[in-house]
Write a structure and sequence with these properties.
There is one protein chain. The protein is 27% helix and 27% strand. The strands form two sheets. Strands 3-2-1-4-5-9-6 form a seven-stranded mixed β-sheet. The two termini are 28 Å apart. The chain is globular and about 40 Å long.
Length: 169
């Protein structure tokens, strides 16, 4: 019965998996890239999920679609932190969603691409806190997963982001 909202969905694997497991899911990707939205719809159709809504968003912009979004429990973001120019816009969008849904959490994974790229200062700026989720805690710290060469030798991180309380915790 939880509502899941995936940002930057791409081919929508996390959202499709959540929907297949029975969650209510809304997928989103860039409203400026119709092909991305079409990929989301195609993934839903290929997985017998024609009822899953797909909406276009622009990170960092509060749109009518974002304002009218149903309450969400979990926001998903799989590898959305790949371009540092987008980091603040992503976190602004997440902050808006968390303010609107104070008990929600943003679950995200990302590939570490540069030691110089960090969202720590932006988390403080947007009054967000994060909990690092060790991959070994759910056996995802192997070089090959499920018969795939991914993640290989890439460093993958997972974290859960939520609103920080007024005392900073």
């Amino acid at each position: 019965g939880r509502m899941w909202f995936q940002i930057g969905a791409g081919v929508s694997l996390p959202g499709v998996l959540a929907a297949k497991c029975g969650a209510e899911v809304i997928l989103s990707d860039s409203e400026e890239l119709p092909q991305c939205l079409q990929n989301c719809r195609r993934s839903c159709l290929m997985n017998d999920l024609p009822h899953v809504p797909v909406i276009g968003l622009t990170w960092g912009r509060v749109s009518p679609e974002l304002l009218s979004l149903a309450p969400v429990d979990v926001i998903l973001g799989s590898d959305v932190f790949f371009d540092p120019e987008d980091f603040e816009d992503i976190l602004m969008t997440v902050y808006f969603l968390l303010e609107k849904n104070p008990r929600a959490q943003f679950w995200t994974t990302y590939q570490v691409r540069s030691a110089d790229w960090s969202i720590e200062a932006l988390l403080c700026k947007w009054k967000l806190k994060n909990i690092h989720v060790p991959l070994h805690s759910f056996s995802a710290d192997k070089e090959h997963l499920a018969g795939s060469p991914l993640p290989g030798r890439h460093t993958i991180e997972m974290m859960i982001i939520s609103l920080a309380r007024s005392d900073g915790t």
